[in-house]
Design a protein that fits this description.
The strands form 5 sheets. The protein has a 5-stranded parallel beta sheet. A 5-stranded antiparallel beta sheet has the order 12-11-10-14-13, with no helix packed on it. It has a 3-stranded antiparallel beta sheet with strand order 15-16-17, with no helix packed on it. Helices cover 27% and strands 32% of the residues. The chain contains 8 helices and 17 strands.
């Protein structure tokens, strides 16, 4: 399988290449800009699969395909989590939200192998995707949740949740009342329901609400520790791979 990576952040490109190598997939080429990619596509055989970053240093990567005809399958890599879900369910193989998780990557590769098109011709409508990226549709996110407490249902306002976290295969909402409620959902499902302006997934186990962050402390191995106003039952650590995006999110 011939695979290339188009990613303007070279450390991210190298990390993705290492993760793919662990899946026995060799990245033959790494490209880092729209201009470089156009030149490469014009003079080389197109690969089977492209891992495509959306925002490159010199523009949106879709500009590549304004200049050359795409003959490869695509797995998007993107930080556009607030509205990407609609855009990338079109005819791409899959999309991966940054920072890329190794398990998500493995699932995307498996999906590609299962759905590998017999024809190399793609029918992606990049114009439609560009419209969603440049003028994203306003999405409605959940403003309240319910949790079962005995024989009662507790209404929990999203603004009152300091964090969502997973423990022992359960997902909990920790509120400003210092109460923890078991939710009938998963962190993965919450990804589509939480406002990305308010909530950020700092690790595999925690989503935090920016309005309830009390302190951010530098931690070992280039990580960060978060203190919330009331929740103190567990350490909340921003994983090293998510620190950069977390800092950008805070701004």
């Amino acid at each position: 399988m011939n695979v290339i990576v188009i990613e303007d952040e070279k450390p991210a490109a190298r990390r993705l290449s290492r993760l793919l190598a662990e899946l026995k997939i060799n990245v033959s080429v790494m490209l880092h800009s729209v201009e470089e990619s156009i030149i490469w596509f014009e003079s080389n055989e197109h690969p089977d699969l492209i891992f495509l970053d959306i925002q490159l240093s010199d523009g949106l990567s879709f500009e590549i395909f304004d200049a050359v005809e795409v003959k490869s399958s695509i797995i998007f890599t993107t930080a556009y989590d607030e509205y990407a879900l609609q855009a990338f369910k079109l005819n791409s193989i899959d999309y991966l939200l940054k920072p890329i998780d190794d398990e998500d990557l493995e699932k995307a590769v498996k999906k590609y192998k299962e759905l590998r098109p017999k024809s190399t011709k793609l029918s992606l409508d990049f114009n439609d995707i560009k419209k969603l990226l440049v003028n994203p549709i306003e999405r409605e996110f959940k403003k309240r949740f319910t949790a079962r407490v005995g024989q009662h249902l507790k209404i929990i306002n999203a603004d009152e949740v300091e964090c969502f976290y997973s423990e022992n295969k359960g997902t909990y909402a920790a509120t400003i009342e210092s109460r923890n409620y078991l939710m009938d959902t998963t962190l993965e499902n919450l990804e589509n329901e939480l406002s990305p302006k308010k909530f950020f997934r700092v690790s595999r186990k925690f989503y935090v609400n920016v309005d309830h962050i009390k302190d951010i402390i530098t931690f070992s191995n280039s990580r960060l520790k978060i203190k919330l106003n009331h929740f103190n039952e567990k350490e909340i650590i921003v994983s090293r791979e998510r620190v950069r995006d977390f800092k950008l999110w805070l701004e």
